[in-house]
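Running this now, will post back.
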Amino acid sequence: MLERLDQKMQRAVESSAFLQNAAMVMGWIGVVAIMVLSLVPGSLRPHTGLPGQMEHALAYGLTGALLCVGYGKPRDRLLLWIGLAAGSALFELLQNFSPGRSPAVIDSLASIAGLTVGFVAGAALNAQATVHLD
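Update: finished.
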C-alpha cells in the first residue's frame, strides 16, 4: 500500500514538473508574441474587437500567469514582473517608430495592471497546487 502511494506521489510530482515547464515555455511564447504585436505596423496587427487597453491587460495577464506558474521562486517572479512592466513601457515608446502606431501611457498602465493580476492568479494557482501535493 505504501509503495502504491509512493508511485502516485511520484506521478503527481512528474506531472507538476511537466506543467511547470510547459507554462514556462508558453509564457515565453507569450512574451515574444507581445513584443512582435507591439511593434508591427498598425495595419498588420490583428484586432480582437476588444478595446485596446483590454487587449493589453489580457495579453499581459495571461503571459504573466503562465510565467508565474513556470517560475516558482519569488525572486524570479519579481524579476520577471519588473522586466515585463519595463518592457511594456519600452514597447509603447518604440511604437513611435512603427507606422500606424501611437504610444499611450494608458496602454502601458493597462499592460502592467493585467500583468499584476496575472501574477497574482499564477501565484494562487501555484499555492493551490502545492497544498494538494502536500
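The mean pLDDT is 89. More later if anyone needs it.
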